[in-house]
Design brief:
The protein has helices spanning 2-9, 21-39, 42-67, 77-86, 94-110, 115-118, 123-148. By secondary structure, the protein is mainly alpha-helical.
Length: 154
């Protein structure tokens, strides 16, 4: 089970990328978004977000023990969740998805309150929750950006 959890937590070993594994994990999150974009189903989108949060919480807990630290660098399933939440329920094309990608990376790095507090939660829930909160900020910012620049971002 540990092998499976590490595979999930590192998103098929994307987290082992030698530099910027969080950015690579976020890019992988765009791939996870593709079926959501194709399906155009809010129920599917919500279900995928919940499933990734639950699976990531389990895998993150196991991976923390495996790597011997809190929110270890190779764990990037939280970035996948972050991208799904960033783009949640916003009908965007590629420009909007890329804008969301950059917004999420910014908020994930600066971790404004309460994201910085949520990462202190125990185990995989803490791994996932801080990125989910950063993604909420990115989602709101993306909505604002689309409202301000509707012809540029869609």
């Amino acid at each position: 089970m540990t092998r499976l959890a590490v595979f999930v937590a590192t998103v098929a070993y994307c987290g082992y990328f030698p530099f910027a594994p969080g950015t690579i994990g976020s890019a992988a999150g765009l791939l996870f978004y593709l079926p959501v974009w194709w399906a155009q189903s809010r129920a599917f989108e919500a279900g995928l977000i919940v499933a990734v949060f639950i699976l990531g919480s389990w895998a993150g807990t196991v991976a923390e023990r495996y790597f011997g630290g809190i929110d270890p660098g190779p764990v990037v399933i939280d970035e996948v969740l972050g991208m799904l939440v960033t783009l949640a329920f916003i009908p965007v094309g590629w420009t909007g998805a890329l804008a969301g990608f950059f917004l999420f990376r910014i908020f994930d790095i600066i971790k404004p309150f309460p994201a910085n507090r949520l990462e202190r939660l125990h185990g995989g829930v803490g791994v996932m929750a801080d990125d989910a909160m950063a993604a909420v900020y990115a989602n709101i910012s993306l909505r604002l950006l689309i409202w301000l620049l509707p012809s540029w971002i869609h």
